[in-house]
Structure formats: structure tokens, C-alpha cells
Specification:
Residues 1-35 form a coiled coil. With 159 residues, the chain is mainly α. Helix content is 58%, strand content 9%. It has two domains: 1-30; 32-114, Nucleoid-associated protein YbaB-like domain (Ybab, Chain: A, 2-Layer Sandwich). The chain has a three-stranded antiparallel β-sheet.
């Protein structure tokens, strides 16, 4: 009976250690973050776990150097770089507790036990799409011909 009790106590101790290790990993994963800045330094993004955007900073120069669509693209690329940095931290945290043969990136993606053929999307059939049409007033058309910054300055002077 004492051997049985000792085994149960040992199993409970192992369970408690495993649970504490899991809690520790969960705390580390909850604290994961990634930061990136655009090459010109005008955009800085900070993301949290899972690539969730936490902070976005745009310098005054961002509005002068980039047209709106260029700035939007730069923001998307910078946030993606910050998310990749956070993902790398996530993978490192997980690799410390996973078996050596387990790919943490595949585990996070949900593909750890699948072959690429099982999760890659099937080739989509080509569908001819018409480009989206946007109605443009004469006033809007004229504004589009001007630099977006120049038109903003003009509007400020008129007010």
C-alpha cells in the first residue's frame, strides 16, 4: 500500500511541475511582442501575441514623403515585419518545451501533424473579374491630379 501511495504522490508531483511549466509558458506567450520600423523610419509598429497591433506611430515626415496609398502599404509591411518578429519569439518560447522533432511554427499554424498536401489550398479556377469602378466627381478628379499634400495645404488655407 505504501508503494502505491508513493507512486500516486510522485504522479501528483509530476503533474504539478508540468502544470507550473505550462503556466510559465502561457505567461511568456502572453508577453510576446514584436516591433519594427520602416526602412525610412517614418512608421513604427508594435504588436502583441498573435500579431495583434498594439501601437502604430507615424512621424510627421510620413505624410510628406508618402502618398496615402504608399503610406498604407508601408504600414502594412511594417506591421507584418513586427508580427514576424513576435512570431519568432513565440516559436522560441514553444521550442523550449516541445519535443525536438516538433516544428513550433507548424504547431502554431495548426499543421504540425499534416502533410503540405493536406493543408495547402487547392488551385482556384481563374475567374475573370471586372475591376471595381468608382464614381469620381469633377471636383474629385481635379483633386486627384494634385499632390495629396498640396491639396491638403490648399484646404487649410481656405478655411
Amino acid at each position: 500500500m505504501d508503494d502505491h501511495r508513493a507512486q500516486v504522490e510522485e504522479l501528483l508531483a509530476d503533474y504539478r511541475r508540468s502544470r507550473e511549466q505550462l503556466a510559465s509558458v502561457q505567461r511568456e506567450l502572453a508577453a510576446v511582442s514584436g516591433q519594427a520600423s520602416s526602412p525610412d523610419g517614418t512608421v513604427t509598429a508594435l504588436v502583441g501575441p498573435g500579431g495583434q497591433l498594439r501601437s502604430l506611430e507615424l512621424s510627421e515626415l510620413a505624410y510628406r514623403r508618402h502618398r496615402p496609398e504608399q503610406l498604407a502599404e508601408l504600414i502594412v509591411r511594417t506591421v507584418a515585419a513586427a508580427a514576424a518578429s513576435a512570431a519568432e519569439d513565440t516559436y522560441q518560447t514553444l521550442s523550449a518545451v516541445l519535443p525536438a522533432s516538433t516544428d513550433p511554427a507548424a504547431l502554431v499554424a495548426g499543421t504540425a501533424d499534416l502533410q503540405p498536401a493536406e493543408y495547402e489550398p487547392e488551385p482556384a479556377q481563374e475567374v475573370a473579374r471586372q475591376p471595381a469602378r468608382r464614381r469620381v466627381d469633377d471636383d474629385e478628379d481635379n483633386e486627384q491630379r494634385e499632390s495629396w499634400l498640396d491639396s491638403e495645404l490648399i484646404h487649410r488655407r481656405v478655411r
